[in-house]
Design goal:
With 545 residues, this protein is mainly β. It has helices at residues 47-52, 176-180, 385-391, and strands at 2-3, 6-21, 25-29, 58-64, 68-84, 89-100, 104-105, 111-114, 119-122, 147-158, 161-171, 189-194, 225-227, 235-248, 251-271, 293-316, 319-332, 353-354, 361-370, 394-403, 407-408, 411-412, 429-430, 452-453, 468-469, 473-487, 490-499, 513-514, 536-544. The longest helix has 7 residues, at 385-391.
Length: 545
């Protein structure tokens, strides 16, 4: 709708979604601890020996019917006004409202544990006790304050210079995995976990870790994973400022700043963790009617700040290209869903660090050029017949990517804290710079492995998360294309494509898991894999009509 200087758009979206997947599993972990010397756990014991003796350290299982058959509605509205204030100044104003319902199980089988009240929760009649539902059918209280303003401005500073800026809030409405954390729990399924077993005494052999019966009425309540009752809808704030300048005909340079901030982001972390200490774990847990489990909560934040530069050459003189460079820093608590839990569950802020996805420098170049040979070109403009068919009509294109290394985390591969975490991500002490200036990083020793030490038993390591940086990456992909015109309406196209044309070896991050042997842990600091394929060449022939 256009009214004077205003271009107004109003609309909405109604969507129904349904998901279904199963979730039966059983996990067992065997470490060096059960066969270690209690006075020197860090340097004694063997995981293989623990396995052969049938002495697990942790175990978990879900049995019964943990399937997720769920559905929901999304109701979104928006309004936007583009205002042409002057010939040089345009203003964009918008507002969205998103009512993204949480999923509900079509058979009412969402359940979990509420860490705030210390009680089990279920979304339909309890088949064990006969009690009615004690939480909403979604398990999570509604979150209906999700307003998302948008603002943008563009100003023509000079005939060849434009300034643009914008700000917006963007909500995440994909709750599939979050809802998955509320299926497969008591009272609808058997969900059990044991941690910190066989540490001081071999009292939990594999044959009697779990009860032999599958009768739900005889299995004590427990959960593997749950979802917070007060889960919120996470959102991102994004803002930017760019200046674009036309340097010459068809050649444009753009430079700017981009910032984002994530708030109330989903995190799937250890819950009901005990304080580090000797002896059995369960008596030290804050909540005594449940073991260790993972809880999905909206407690993670993130931030990104980056300088960007882009140069674009639009097609002229048989060539075009676009080059991009960014210099940035990306900090978060949880880089991907299912990310490692914080080392210290009572101080999660200590794990805010460069993201797994952080790349300080990224450069990309994409280009297409028609070779200047053949009829109508700079060389051989008057060619015809067989000569033009062979020499003319060739095109070269390519993509080059260069980026700095990504951070990685150095962790212990055994439970030094004895705090009963469902998934352990403990770190060592650092005693000197593991990547000092001038250090010769190789695939057999990417960092100084002697820079780390095993913390004293029942203590946290002093090394921060993602403190080291892995190898750089570079890829060069090329394509050679030849168009052969057959008739006015048909042609034959030949393609030769070269992926990783120079056969660059792009190593992955090294093995950063340190065991009870400390710096002598086999494979510690070594790189054993690559992240790109070796050179690949392919040819193709296509008929277009």
């Amino acid at each position: 709708m256009i009214r004077g200087k205003h271009t107004i758009a109003i609309g909405g979206e109604l969507k129904h979604e349904q998901i279904f997947h199963d979730g039966v599993f059983s996990n067992w972990a065997f470490t060096n601890v059960p066969t270690a010397d209690p006075q020197n756990v860090a340097r004694t014991g063997q995981a293989l020996a623990s396995f052969l003796l049938g002495l697990p350290s942790t175990a978990s299982r879900i049995l019964g019917d943990p399937s997720l058959n769920a559905s929901r509605y999304l109701v979104h509205y928006y309004a936007q006004d583009d205002i042409k204030l002057t010939p040089k100044l345009t203003l964009n104003l918008g507002l969205r409202y998103e009512d993204s319902h949480w999923f509900h199980h079509n058979q009412g089988r969402l359940s979990g544990y509420d860490t705030e009240t210390g009680r089990y929760m279920w979304a339909s009649a309890n088949p064990i006790t006969g009690e009615p539902a004690n939480v909403p059918r979604t398990l999570v209280d509604p979150d209906r304050n999700n307003f998302a303003p948008r603002f943008g401005v563009a100003y023509l500073l000079t005939p060849k210079t434009t300034v643009r800026s914008g700000y917006g809030i963007f909500y995440n409405s994909n709750f599939t995995w979050e809802t998955s954390s509320a299926r497969g729990n008591w009272p609808y399924s058997v969900s059990q976990s044991r941690e910190g077993m066989n540490r001081d005494f071999p009292d939990s052999p594999v044959t009697n870790v779990f009860p032999g019966t599958l009768d739900l009425k005889t299995v004590p309540p427990d959960v593997q994973h749950s979802m917070s009752r007060h889960q919120r809808v996470g959102y991102m704030q994004q803002w930017n400022l760019h200046v674009q300048r036309e340097l010459s005909t068809g050649l444009v340079l753009e430079m700017g700043y981009v910032g984002t901030k994530g708030t109330k982001l989903s995190s799937f972390f250890n819950a009901n963790v005990a304080n580090p200490g000797p002896g059995p774990v369960q008596p030290r847990r804050p909540l005594q009617n449940v073991g260790g489990f993972s809880e999905d909560k909206s407690i993670a934040n993130s931030s990104y700040h980056g300088f960007t530069a882009k140069m674009e050459k639009r097609m002229s003189a048989n060539a075009n290209f676009i080059a991009n460079y960014s210099y940035s820093r990306f900090i978060d608590l949880c880089s991907v869903f299912g990310c490692p839990s914080p080392q210290n569950s009572f101080n999660i802020k200590a794990d805010y660090a460069p993201s797994d996805l952080n790349n300080t420098h990224i450069f990309t170049l994409g280009y297409v050029t028609n070779l200047p040979f053949g009829r109508g070109q700079r060389f051989g403009a008057g060619m015809s017949g067989a000569a033009n068919a062979i020499i003319g009509g060739w095109q070269v294109n390519g993509i080059t990517t260069l980026r700095s290394g990504r951070p990685f985390n150095v962790t212990l591969n055994f439970d030094n804290q004895n705090d009963g975490q469902r998934s352990e991500h403990q770190r060592p002490n650092v005693i000197r710079d593991p990547q000092p200036s001038g250090f010769n990083s190789t695939e057999s020793k990417w960092f100084d492995t002697a820079a780390f030490a095993i913390p004293a038993p029942y203590t946290y390591g002093n090394l921060g998360r993602n403190a080291l940086v892995g190898p750089r990456l570079q890829t060069w992909d090329f394509g050679l294309l030849k168009n052969i015109r057959i008739t006015e309406r048909s042609r034959l196209q030949f393609r030769a494509e070269f992926f990783n044309a120079f056969n660059n070896v792009n190593f992955g991050n090294p093995n950063a898991s340190i065991g009870s042997q400390g710096a002598d842990t086999p494979g510690f600091g070594e790189i054993s894999g690559v992240v790109t394929n070796q050179r690949q060449i392919q040819f193709g022939l296509k008929y277009l009509f």
